[in-house]
Amino acid sequence: MFNRIFVGVFAVIFCVSTAHSAPSTRPVTVVGEEFSSEDPIVKNFHSMGIVDGRDAIYRSASPVRDLAREMTTTRPTTGELAEATSRMRHLYARGIRTIVCLQDPRQKSEELGSVDLERTAATAAGIRFVNDPMDNSGPHSLETMSDAQVMTLLNKVTSDILKYSAAGGVVYHCTAGHDRAGIVSAFIRMKYQHWPVQEAINEMREMGHNWPKFSNNGGISSWHEQHLRAIAKMLTEEPTTRAAG
Fold first, then answer.
1. What residues does each domain of the chain span?
2. Which CATH number applies to 38-236?
3. Alpha carbon of 139 to those of 107, 143, 154, 188: distances in Å?
């Protein structure tokens, strides 16, 4: 009897000791990692929580990305337009009243059809469509702009998001919802919710940011992330006038 009690106590002590000494099992962020969408129809749809007192601001992938890929011309078929409009009405039912699209039809011909399709469908569903174009790479892009220029651009986009959120829910997106939407989200986290820059970058990667693809230092970090680190320093020099979200 004594032996059985001793063995049982030893086992409990061993298990408790092992649990406290075991290494963390938190998954390591990998390229392309992302969380399941919070919407059954729109991919990479996620709430941003409370932003400057507003609680209906979301990020996502393009709601019509797959439809645009199937289009053989910049003009959608009747069926494609009907499906796009159906998705916009779904967003309207969720309380979305404004879409801020970060895709750039001026620089990328493949985004022209997507932007036009979404604009037409959003208008039909009673949703305001705002195009704040942004590019990841190439001329006049996040790759070539200065830190100050990127901060000006991000201030413009987030100001639009907050302005239109006064009239209802806002969703902003790029194509996949990873990189351009990622840097906008990180900026919101830093400026309005007062996250440390590293936490904002960690979330950006977890939400799918492909930092090796947009890197000029061998994949250590992206120029998106380098801009954010510089912007974090600029933000500390600004007067703090907003409450933490």
1. 38-236
2. 3.90.190.10
3. 9, 8, 17, 25
